[in-house]
Design brief:
The protein has about 325 residues and is α+β, with helices and mostly antiparallel strands. It has 6 helices and 12 strands. It has 2 domains: about 160 residues, Immunoglobulin-like (Sandwich), CATH 2.60.40.10; about 120 residues, no CATH class. Strands 6, 7, 8, 10 and 11 form a 5-stranded antiparallel sheet that branches. A 4-stranded antiparallel sheet has the order 1-2-5-9, with no helix packed on it. The chain has a 3-stranded mixed sheet with strand order 3-4-12.
Amino acid sequence: MQNRKFLIPILAVLLVGVVAPLSVQRAHGDDQSATLNVTGVLAKGYYDQYLGGTFNVIQAGNTINFNVFFTANYIAFQRNLTMGIKFDWMQNYQNTTSPVTVLAYGTATVTLAFQIPQLSGASANLNQAPHSWTLEMWDMALASTWTNGCSDSGYVRAPACIQWNSCDYCGINQYRIAVYSSQQATYYNNMLQASAIIGALSAVLGGTNPPAGSSAAAADMAQATTQALLAQNAYRTGDFNTAQSDSQNALNDANAAQSSLGTIGGGTDAAIMTNIWLTGAAVIMGGIGALLLGFGGFKYMRGKTRSMPNYTPPTSAKSS
């Protein structure tokens, strides 16, 4: 019965987190619809405390994919689709290498893969600011080059152009991008996992009948929240190396807290509840960003941990 009580709200939040609207353009002269979906990113719609905004995040050196699902209208002619992407650090578009042909009523997915530069040379400071972008899809004669700006007169035949621009209010696929260093990416992943474990264990340890091993687990969890707060403070000021180190400490302590219940005898009920909450938290965070990564979230968890039965104060913070 207790398992069911915790499972219902998790499923409710999961359903909210999973819904991620795609960016759909209005119909043009050659299509019925064209829908953009961005893949290959580390996170979508993530609030970055250093940059101070919500972005789609990708690590430097990785490839971001712009995928457009194109549905042709009823007009009988061959559409020859190509795409180009331009970020704010670029002078020219980088284009797809070959056209995709679509006939009346046909559908096709056109994908443009773009590798984000490494943080070196002229691109060394790409992680210091968010970046805007423009994506265009062109329908034109084979072996042609688009030169007329992006407009669609509404006529039934090519040439035609569809454009998407980065926008903070246009859906999850059109956010500006934040380019992360390896230290920032590791920080993000560590905090994602640590906060999932902390959220899971808080439900188990905060009950009226905490399982065996809860005292040690509570101490480790308090230490984990302390390390997480240190990591957040370092990240917020741009000290990404310290943020990476402190977030690793937070994850280590969170894992130790989970291990305390498993090795000292948490019991079947505690194990089931922990797995339910871990699974729910991990999926939620993967879809909508880290649930407890806000400063207030970790402060709340630290206060909640201290109020748990059998709580033992943690030792001083580990040095990184």
